[in-house]
From TrEMBL, chains A, B:
All copies of domain CMP/dCMP-type deaminase, residue ranges: 1-116
PANTHER family: CYTOSINE DEAMINASE (PTHR11079:SF190), CYTOSINE DEAMINASE FAMILY MEMBER (PTHR11079)
InterPro entries (alphabetical): CMP_dCMP_dom (IPR002125), Cytidine_deaminase-like (IPR016193)
CDD domains from the UniProt entry: nucleoside_deaminase
Protein name in the entry: Nucleoside deaminase
Organism, as annotated: Aliiglaciecola litoralis
Pfam family, one: dCMP_cyt_deam_1
């Protein structure tokens, strides 16, 4: 397992331990994690802090050249909002844990020249399958389909 | 002036008074403002709290049916990230103060069936023109082009 995907999974597990939606993300610049985060809908009552958005928030204000030389790892295929943030800051590469339980805007990323890799990791799938089974209403709220 | 666009402009002015980027937004559901916000890059050191995102955050967790029956007002054409949030929650209508100083992803909104209206308001244009003249580096950071 790639250490950065493992770090994203660790974030997802932290979210699960807090009673939240188990999706995690890290942003890596030149081999170093500059931002890590996990979905905070439940914990902070936030509709915008998806895992990737929380990683951006925790990376803080960065120059454009840092984003453009970074990779974002996320345990789940990025939704429209997170895809938009990746495009805004021109992150050139996205590594996705799984797109089996949810397929986000991967095509829009590719159409804009972003390199997209899907690992299809069983741990990531397991975390989401369990969560969706136990809390379908929270999951649907998170992707705007409740 | 539409009272809701005026409320978005009031948010932009609040941001300016705080030394921030003067962009404001409100989300309106059935004639009532359910979330208001302004860009907080400077004030909170946030790369994700654009005006629209701050309005979503302040609206808090809402059922999908509320978003799908809401209008978002923003003083400036929405960037990729804010466009993505609007699409995630399927807000059907966006009213934009101006797209003279910055043209965001209006086409992507329209391609996804969102009704887009651009007011081209002189107050909104004036706020951004002044800010970009005085703080070009902050503005470029905000849209990932510094």
């Amino acid at each position: 397992m790639d250490i950065f995907m493992q770090a994203a999974i660790d974030e997802a597990k932290k979210g699960k331990a807090e009673g939240g939606i188990p999706i995690g993300s890290v942003i890596v610049h030149q081999g170093k994690i500059i931002g890590r985060g996990h979905n905070r809908r439940v914990q902070s009552g936030s509709p915008i802090l998806h895992g990737e958005m929380d990683a951006f928030e925790n990376a803080g204000r960065q120059p454009a050249k840092v984003y453009r030389d970074s990779v974002i790892y996320t345990t789940l295929s990025p939704c429209s909002m997170c895809t938009g943030a990746i495009l805004l800051y021109e992150i050139p590469k996205v590594v996705i844990g799984e797109n089996h339980t949810f397929q986000g805007q991967e095509q829009l990323l590719k159409d804009n020249g972003v390199e997209v890799t899907v690992v299809q990791d069983q741990q990531c799938i397991g975390l989401m399958e369990e969560f969706i089974r136990l809390h379908p209403e929270l999951w649907h709220e998170d992707i705007g389909t409740d």
